[in-house]
């Protein structure tokens, strides 16, 4: 790796992936579920930083550091580095990766997938080796179904098993509050509790959501098909949603992904006050807020 490309720390926010709507539309013969999902990436996330080192190393800090698996190939960030080197046909880069884990683990907001995708983007800049779009997408998909969508942290529509991606309509200025009752839910368990797997697809979307009202009107006629099975496994999700729905400043609320993180949409000017009030009322919950996009 050229020395001039290793002169500074490169860092990026690994944004949470929020499923504003998630429809399960079928199941393939190999067991994978088919879906359609409107996905947003709020300005809330983990932090990935790369800097020069004598060898590949991973340092994890932050409030959820202890919940991660540091064991070699099982760690998604290290798998991303080794997979990148193999695809790029280069030696494994000698970099120190610092992951500041701010997002709860196994919480339905794609934290691990976003960490891996962000690492791949930073590796291209650090090494000066840029994979083709097809190679990068294929590598991301090999790491997990949610990793490809996290490569481009902008509003998108996911289809298939997550590999079919398209740009979503422009989103309005909007605040979002994320709340997790600090309960871990395993995605296979939630899918396993899903009764109906052939649900209607998302309604046609406009070219842009002109304001919050337009976005909420669309979301009101959509669903998260995993919310009911997740609530049956974790009663705390219902408690979170009831609390969000009881706050008049929150204009729409729903669970993201397979849970247990829920979100509330609000005016951008309200999100910080809502976060503060939630923290006061429920100091045992994980709570964060930021712009929706």
UniProtKB/TrEMBL annotation:
Q: Which GO terms describe its molecular function?
A: 4-(cytidine 5'-diphospho)-2-C-methyl-D-erythritol kinase activity; ATP binding
List residues of the GHMP kinase N-terminal domain. Answer: 75-151
Gene Ontology biological process terms in this record: isopentenyl diphosphate biosynthetic process, methylerythritol 4-phosphate pathway; terpenoid biosynthetic process
According to the entry, every stretch annotated as the GHMP kinase C-terminal domain falls at: 211-274
Matching Pfam families: GHMP_kinases_C, GHMP_kinases_N
Q: What class of enzyme is it?
A: transferase
**UniProt keyword annotation of Nucleotide-binding present:** yes
InterPro entries this protein is in?
GHMP_kinase_C_dom, GHMP_kinase_C_sf, GHMP_kinase_N_dom, IspE, Ribosomal_Su5_D2-typ_SF, Ribsml_uS5_D2-typ_fold_subgr
| Catalysed reaction equations from the record | 4-CDP-2-C-methyl-D-erythritol + ATP = 4-CDP-2-C-methyl-D-erythritol 2-phosphate + ADP + H(+)
EC number(s) reported in the record: 2.7.1.148
Q: Which SUPFAM superfamilies match?
A: GHMP Kinase, C-terminal domain, Ribosomal protein S5 domain 2-like
Q: Print the keywords alphabetically.
A: ATP-binding, Isoprene biosynthesis, Kinase, Nucleotide-binding, Transferase
- To which pathway does this protein belong? Isoprenoid biosynthesis; isopentenyl diphosphate biosynthesis via DXP pathway; isopentenyl diphosphate from 1-deoxy-D-xylulose 5-phosphate: step 3/6
Which residues are noted in the entry as ATP-binding?
A: 104-114
Name the catalytic site residues. 17, 146
> What this chain does, per the record?
Catalyzes the phosphorylation of the position 2 hydroxy group of 4-diphosphocytidyl-2C-methyl-D-erythritol.
User: Can you tell me which family this protein belongs to?
Assistant: Belongs to the GHMP kinase family. IspE subfamily.
Q: Which PANTHER family match?
A: 4-DIPHOSPHOCYTIDYL-2-C-METHYL-D-ERYTHRITOL KINASE, CHLOROPLASTIC
Q: What is this protein called?
A: 4-diphosphocytidyl-2-C-methyl-D-erythritol kinase
Q: Which organism is it from?
A: Roseibium alexandrii (strain DSM 17067 / NCIMB 14079 / DFL-11)
């Amino acid at each position: 790796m050229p020395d001039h490309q290793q002169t500074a720390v490169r860092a990026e926010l690994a944004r949470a992936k929020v499923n504003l709507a998630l429809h399960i539309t079928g199941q393939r013969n190999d067991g994978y579920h088919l879906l359609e999902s409107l996905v947003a990436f709020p300005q809330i996330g983990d932090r990935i930083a790369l800097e020069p080192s004598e060898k590949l190393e991973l340092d994890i800090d932050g409030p959820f550091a202890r919940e991660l698996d540091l064991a070699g190939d099982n760690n998604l960030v290290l798998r991303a580095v080794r997979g990148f080197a193999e695809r790029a046909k280069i030696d494994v880069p000698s970099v120190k990766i610092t992951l500041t884990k701010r997002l709860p683990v196994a919480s339905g907001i794609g934290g691990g997938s976003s960490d891996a995708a962000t690492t791949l983007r930073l590796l291209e800049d650090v090494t000066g080796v840029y994979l083709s779009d097809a190679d990068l997408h294929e590598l991301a998909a090999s790491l997990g179904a949610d990793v490809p969508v996290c490569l481009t942290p902008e509003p998108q529509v996911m289809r298939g098993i997550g590999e079919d991606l398209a740009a979503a309509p422009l989103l309005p200025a909007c605040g979002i509050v994320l709340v997790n009752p600090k309960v871990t839910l395993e995605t296979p368990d939630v899918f396993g509790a899903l009764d109906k797997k052939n649900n209607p697809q998302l309604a046609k979307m406009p070219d842009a959501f002109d304001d919050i009202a337009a976005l909420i009107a669309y979301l009101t006629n959509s669903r998260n098909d995993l919310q009911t099975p997740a609530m049956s496994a974790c009663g705390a999700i219902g408690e979170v949603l009831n609390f969000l729905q009881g706050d008049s400043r929150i204009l729409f609320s729903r669970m993201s992904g397979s849970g247990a993180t829920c979100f509330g949409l609000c005016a951008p000017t309200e999100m910080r006050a809502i976060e503060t009030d939630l923290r006061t009322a429920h100091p045992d919950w994980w709570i964060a807020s930021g712009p929706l996009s």
